[in-house]
Design brief:
Elements: H1 3-11, E1 14-16, H2 18-25, H3 30-44, E2 51-53, H4 55-64, E3 98-100, E4 106-108, H5 109-118, E5 148-153, H6 164-182, E6 204-215, E7 221-226, E8 231-236, H7 241-247, E9 255-263, E10 266-273, E11 288-292, H8 304-314, H9 321-328, E12 330-336, H10 358-369, E13 377-381, H11 399-406, E14 411-413, E15 418-422, E16 425-429, H12 435-441, H13 450-460, E17 489-492, E18 499-503, E19 506-510, H14 519-523, E20 532-537, E21 540-545
Parallel strand pairs: 1-2, 8-10, 11-12, 12-13, 13-14, 16-17, 17-19
Antiparallel strand pairs: 3-4, 5-15, 6-7, 6-9, 7-8, 9-10, 11-20, 15-16, 18-19, 20-21
EC number: 2.7.7.7, 3.1.11.1
Subunit structure: Heterodimer of a large subunit and a small subunit.
Catalytic activity: DNA(n) + a 2'-deoxyribonucleoside 5'-triphosphate = DNA(n+1) + diphosphate; Exonucleolytic cleavage in the 3'- to 5'-direction to yield nucleoside 5'-phosphates
Length: 546
């Protein structure tokens, strides 16, 4: 599919179904046709309406404008090449009551629909308005000063039509990617598909996706595993304390390996194997990187004084001689989402907003970030408060809302998640919304210790493994949330509480917040750590408080 057509409609807040897309793409100038359709729809629908363009709507528009649906504009038809879905997990025979993942278990239809509907939640109160021009520092920046590369960004690669075929493809992609990590391990190199396991096998090795984890009445663990060929139950005995403890960290929809023996219809597990993280070689740095997140500009609880001190420090105008020396070495500033507070994110949020327009919030962000010296590269990923779609992966914040920030020559927007290289320092940026699900699901995990959650996600090699819970995930043709490449740094936010751990050479950083406790946080007893800024100073982790 051409991302240009999809994103043209997406930027206008309009969805396109598969038949409509195929009809539009046949035309000689599909982008012009798309623009005309969008203009026509804008006259007939309210901005808050959820509009889905169908094939019949395309035909009707062409007929009303003097074109036959069979005679494309310009008189030329493009050759249509239909790509068949890959074999294996995909299956078109779907029951109406229960939607099957062939070889990968079953889905609850209501849960799927709820998750798809959540991806549209951002179409609520975000309204773009004209505002006074913000005065910014717009000095020219020589890009050669930065050895900055975007290694992975889903902003123009993210597409789903929301149909069942896409959901199956999504889980197929996840399974195959993580299976390929696992089968490289010596103890799983000779694994067998579930359907090929024989009753008489002494040692069984399988790779599967977790369908369910439950505790028996005798306090053992049963793990329901599935692959493309079938399903099987795995028993973890509670007397195997080390393995039992590991089983308590398992979550639905993650992919893992099991070694054990078969007993009847069960596998008795002797080992549970995650994809894991190889030790990362230390990256030598003669520069420093600053990490922040959850600034929440526009909120009455935004700590502007603290943030202004931070700006003064990074510009070399504030702090002790040692702190100013650190500031002088800063080359990159990485922001892991929620740069603004957004609109309509939680109940009664408007009562805590000083800026009640999303565009004006970004204008104020541009005024503040525009004061940062121009020889610092600023990289910003969206969070769930930003003007990006709710479902992950989130595309970069669109220029439509953050135009003033896009004018800053030293600032780059990326998706959530995104993998970037900062002079060779591979940094995985993820806002961290899946921490809610992990804290709720896994025993011993909490928002206060997000470093433990980050460690577990690295071991699972997936940023957001649980599908269908509080974190909306877009069921795309490819699962972009698999951690394909091990970074030097994993930078997260969302929980508003600083944490740090160095795990197998990877710096796991949560950068806290510049927002004091909100009324919403008081309900859930979330006590933020405010104005505590992590800095990787020439390879050494430090925290500065403002």
């Amino acid at each position: 599919m051409s991302p240009d057509i999809i994103f043209k409609f997406a930027n206008a807040g309009i969805l396109v179904n598969e038949i409509a897309y195929e009809k539009i793409s046949l035309y000689d100038d599909p982008l012009s046709l798309s623009s005309s359709l969008i203009a026509d729809l804008s006259r007939n629908y309210n901005k808050k309406d959820l509009v889905i363009v169908t094939g019949d709507m395309v035909d009707k528009f062409l007929k009303e404008n003097g074109n036959s649906p069979d005679e494309p504009v310009g008189g030329k038809v493009k050759t249509e090449i239909k790509l068949e879905p890959p074999s294996g997990i995909l299956n078109s025979n779907l029951d109406t009551e229960t939607l099957e993942k062939p070889g990968l278990g079953t889905f609850n239809e209501n849960k799927i629909l709820e998750n798809i509907e959540e991806t549209e939640d951002l179409k609520e109160d975000i309204i773009s308005q004209n505002s006074d021009e913000v005065e910014l520092i717009l000095e020219s920046v020589d890009d050669a000063d930065f050895d900055f590369k975007i290694l992975k960004d889903t902003s123009k690669k993210s597409y789903t039509s929301g149909n069942i075929k896409d959901i199956v493809s999504y889980f197929s992609s996840r399974y195959h990617k993580i299976r390929d990590f696992l089968k490289k391990r010596k103890d799983l190199s000779d694994y067998s598909p579930i359907a090929d396991i024989y009753q008489s096998q002494d040692v069984v090795k399988i790779i599967g996706m977790v369908k369910e984890v439950r505790t028996t009445k005798n306090n053992h663990k049963i793990i329901e595993l599935e692959d493309e060929s079938g399903e099987i139950s795995v028993l973890v005995h509670n007397e195997n304390h080390k393995l039992f403890d590991k089983s308590e960290t398992l979550v639905r929809d993650e992919v893992l390996g099991v070694v054990g023996s078969r007993k009847g219809n069960l596998i008795i597990a002797s080992e549970i194997i995650h994809p894991g993280v190889p030790r990362v070689e230390e990256k030598k740095m003669d520069f420093s990187v600053v990490f922040i997140s959850d600034v929440h500009i526009g909120s009455s609880t935004f700590l502007e004084d603290s943030f202004n001190k931070f700006i003064q420090w990074i510009n070399g105008d504030f702090g002790s001689p040692e702190q100013r020396e650190i500031a002088a070495s800063v080359k990159y500033l990485v922001v892991a989402g929620d740069i603004v507070d957004g609109i309509g994110i939680y109940p009664h949020q408007d009562k805590e907003l000083t800026i009640k327009d999303i565009t004006l919030q970004y204008d104020e962000a541009a005024r503040l970030f525009g004061q940062i010296r121009q020889n610092i590269k600023i990289i910003i990923a969206p969070g769930n408060h930003d003007a990006s779609r709710v479902a992950e992966p989130q595309p970069a914040v669109p220029e439509e809302y953050a135009g003033a920030l896009y004018k800053l020559k030293n600032l780059e927007f990326v998706s959530n998640p995104a993998l970037v290289s900062l002079d060779g320092l591979k940094t995985l940026i993820y806002h961290g919304r899946s921490f809610d699900d992990m804290a709720m699901t896994v025993k011993g995990m909490s928002h206060e210790q997000s470093d433990l959650i980050m460690k577990e996600l690295m071991e699972k090699r997936h940023i957001a493994p649980i599908y269908g819970e509080r974190t909306p995930l877009a069921s795309e043709l490819e699962d972009h949330l698999v951690i394909d490449e091990i970074p030097h740094v994993l930078h997260t936010g969302h929980v508003h509480i600083n944490s740090y751990k160095k795990y197998k050479g990877v710096h796991l950083i949560n950068s806290g917040t510049f927002q004091s406790q909100t009324e919403f946080q008081k309900i859930y007893n979330i006590v933020p750590t405010c104005g505590e800024v992590p800095v990787l100073h020439q390879g050494v982790f430090k925290v500065l408080k403002f």
